[in-house]
Write a structure and sequence with these properties.
The protein is 21% helix and 29% strand. The chain has 9 helices and 22 strands. The strands form 6 sheets. The chain has a 6-stranded antiparallel beta sheet, with no helix packed on it. Strands 1, 4, 9, 10 and 17 form a 5-stranded antiparallel beta sheet that branches. The longest helix is centred in the C-terminal third of the chain and has 18 residues.
Length: 381
């Protein structure tokens, strides 16, 4: 009898609307994304998302290969036995399973080739030591090496949403849900910490979109990449096989975005929440749904914003009231006090200087490492 009994997400990303620039189509393009798989298993399946696309997307060919194998052996990813993967506009699809023996810690590469003009409208920018892809002009999806002169790095992850592995019963996934702070490095550092600490039965799945809010979303092309509001987004992003816990660190953009229509027509003061509005949103949109899925829920406090370009004391008042609830509410299974870990003890409104990226909103790489270290060990266990 096989030791492998269930599907568990081994890697995951959110899907949002890519920033609407002058060029929104690509042709004759190869995308390649390396992913470390932390579990043993004997087959993989791939979730592709065109959730925010307005047109069907055709992936001409897609392959998965072990990155460091001496003999490169790309295996084709199929859907219903077909090579062309059609992702309907506004939909997500799941591939057929690919039979491949994976050992814990191996890196795979997922490569996709787009022969025809393709609307590149479904993707999310993420950063971190485990989160860099590549793109090449031309068809190199089944080749071990991408040509240097036709290839560049990218942190935009298009279409590839989740990778599941058929693995052992003991393995599980922890979901990190949030905005740009979670789209940046701390989930990668948490994954590295888990691996180096010997917690090899847990994967860290990132569901984060820069600029996203709990209560509102933008419908203009200027800010569409800021993603869907929490009520719409959370149920879509909690589709994570084998998940047993979600960390929610979300809400700062609700507080810092409104500036008044005389400053920015898309950011009216009517969008400015009170702490009670954020609390109600978290309860209604996140806690209720997560409990229906049987997930444990840990809150993450919001980080300092003193010095950020829209900082005002009244915004910090909302942040602090919301943080107090996140710390003390019995509706969570626990709280990760990121604010306390990164704030200056002499000026608690602000970051410790070395933990500040310089914009007074996002942490530095050192700050992200501290965030990962702040996560209680019991979550990784």
């Amino acid at each position: 009898m096989s030791q492998f009994t269930k599907w568990v997400a081994a890697w995951g990303n959110a899907t949002s609307i890519t920033d609407r620039k002058e060029a929104t189509y690509a042709k004759d393009l190869t995308l390649r994304y390396p992913v470390r798989i932390v579990f043993n298993g004997d087959k993989l399946r791939f979730h592709f998302s065109n959730l925010t696309g307005k047109e069907d997307v055709k992936i001409t060919r897609a392959f998965v290969a072990k990155k460091d194998e001496e003999k490169y052996n790309p295996l084709e990813i199929l859907i219903n036995g077909k090579s062309q993967l059609i992702i309907p506009a506004g939909k997500e699809i799941v591939s057929d399973s690919v039979q491949v023996m994976i050992e814990s810690g191996e890196f795979i590469e997922v490569s996709m080739y787009f022969e025809d003009f393709t609307q590149m409208n479904a993707g999310t920018v993420i950063t971190g030591p485990l989160s860099t892809g590549k793109y090449s002009y031309g068809n190199f999806a089944d080749k071990k090496e991408l040509p240097l002169d036709l290839t560049r790095n990218t942190n935009t992850f298009y279409f590839l949403n989740t990778i599941d592995i058929f693995t052992e019963e003991k393995n599980h996934a922890v979901v990190c849900y949030g905005d740009s702070i979670t789209a940046q490095s701390w989930p990668d550092y948490l994954a590295i910490r888990a691996w180096e600490s010997g917690f090899k039965d847990v994967s860290i799945i990132r569901r984060a979109v820069s600029g996203t809010r709990i209560l509102r979303q933008y419908d203009c092309i200027t800010y569409q990449s800021y993603g869907l509001k929490g009520q719409t987004r959370f149920p879509l992003e909690m589709n994570v096989a084998g998940a047993n816990l979600v960390i929610i660190q979300h809400g700062i953009n609700d507080i810092i975005h409104p500036v008044g229509t005389e400053v920015n027509v898309f950011r009216p003061w009517s969008d400015m929440p009170e702490s009670k509005d954020l609390i109600k949103g978290v309860k209604d949109f996140y806690i209720t749904y997560a409990r229906q899925l049987g997930l444990k829920i840990w809150s993450g406090t919001l980080l300092p914003i003193y010095g950020w370009r829209t900082y005002e004391p009244m915004r910090d008042k909302v942040r602090n009231e919301f943080n107090d609830w996140l710390r003390n509410s019995k509706e969570f299974d626990g709280c990760i006090d990121f604010d306390k870990a990164l704030r200056d003890s002499e000026n608690p409104l602000a970051f410790v200087k070395s933990f500040d990226s310089g914009d007074h909103l996002h942490p530095s790489e050192k700050g992200y490492q501290i965030m990962a270290q702040t996560v209680p060990e019991e979550i990784l266990k």
